[in-house]
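Hi R.,

Here's the input for the 6-O-phosphoryl inosine monophosphate complex you asked about:
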Amino acid sequence: MTVTIVGSQLGDEGKGALVDLWGGDADVVARYQGGDNAGHTVVEDGEEYKLSLVPSGAVRDKVGVLGNGCVINPNTLFSEIDTLRERGLDPDVRLARRAHVIMPYHRRLDNVEEEAKADSDEELVVGTTGRGIGPTYEDKAGRRGIRVGDLLDPEVLRQRLEYAVPQKRALIEDVYGLEAGEECDVEKLVEEYTEIGRRLAEDDMTVNCGDFLARRREAGENVMFEGAQGTLIDIDHGSYPYVTSSNPTAGGAATGTGVGPSVVGRGEVVGIVKSYLSRVGEGPMPTELKDDDREEELADFIREKGGEFGTVTGRPRRIGWLDIPMLRHAARVSGFTGIAVNHLDVLAGLDEVKVGHSYELDGEELLTMPATTERWAKCEPNLREFDPWPEVDWSSVAEDGYDAVPENAREYLDYVSGEMDVPIYAVGVGPDRAETVELANPFEQ
Ligand code: GDP
Ligand code: IMO
Ligand code: MG
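And here is the predicted structure with 6-O-phosphoryl inosine monophosphate in place:
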């Protein structure tokens, strides 16, 4: 069977932790979109792993696949694999030959465009991770991208680069008025990326992704799809243009790996929810805690306690109360069959716990998100207050099970589950694998 893990909010919901928890029952863990903009954390017995491209199943020695929907920077992949090897893991990662490659000029253009936007109008800035994600997906849609399979054939690689690179040079020099550098040196790129192709071939790292997964499934294996980013930064269903350039929502699992939507749909689709909101990068956030000193203090407290600093960029994350219209939207878009609610421990011991239950917009109450970002930005949250829960020994709560979760926290969880109309499969009460209260294992549903 398959289990798909999807971020319900703005990324960093703790997807890595759940992929690791349930990945124990998977044979293959496949990423279906995004690239090294992701930063997924797994903590096993106090040992912390930050994974960017290597699927989070690696900590449990599972086969990892980077599906055709991913954009791959082979240099970051290799260095991540090397680092994990130094720490005693032996990641087995396969790359879809249909996946697109992030080239040095994509990274350059990502930063050049963000700077151009800042110069033109600060409001245009997305706050990307600078990893070249957007420009690589642009080239994919523009039919001028470089795919993993192209790296295996130096002639094809050269042909593609000879077409694409002069365009990038012209863009950097003629449109942005900057100087192109090594990232636009065709000969150097051919040489470097042919060598990368050789390493991929030598280590037998490339696959025909859909076919590979079909065979594994035919052999009775379990496949987990590991979403990166989150619903609100999905290019179709998120807060455009403050989004990433792929589909983190569940539909992406099918198009991004080459299995049918019915396969994904017959399996479980689990939404990962953080008990509050964090956002790294620009864009609206109606429940953001920033309106006065008191709110800012609370945001600082949650940020410090929850370690809310970007895994990839180290940027402090913006903090807000849970946004229920956002979660209703996420549950609908991906058709969640279950949810995991993380970071319950971070909210413990506060004087007040609130959620945005609905929005007020133009005198009307909205239960879900408006489709335009401009209207979303105008939404005022109708806040609901919950009785706070105390700080407790969360490790023993995790051992004792759901009934040991403080009653007020259970009320909060029941409310969230009820509003999303989806059962809770797990509750995160700390970063470690052992600090999770498991109510159901999606592989056993
Ligand atoms: P991802 O991108 O969705 O995988 O999430 P990140 O790894 O970027 O961010 C989640 C952070 O919260 C990591 O530092 C995790 O170790 C940590 N974390 C995950 N679940 C919990 C939880 O239930 N409680 C606490 N306190 N931290 C958690
Ligand atoms: P994980 O998988 C949180 C955000 C960036 C920026 C926007 C576009 O760890 O949850 P991009 O570089 O993708 O073009 O940036 O998306 N972003 C993330 N925010 N978690 C992530 O990944 C993110 N990946 C991208 O901050 O606002
Ligand atoms: Mg992250």
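One thing worth noting: The first helix runs from residue 15 to 23.

Cheers,
M.
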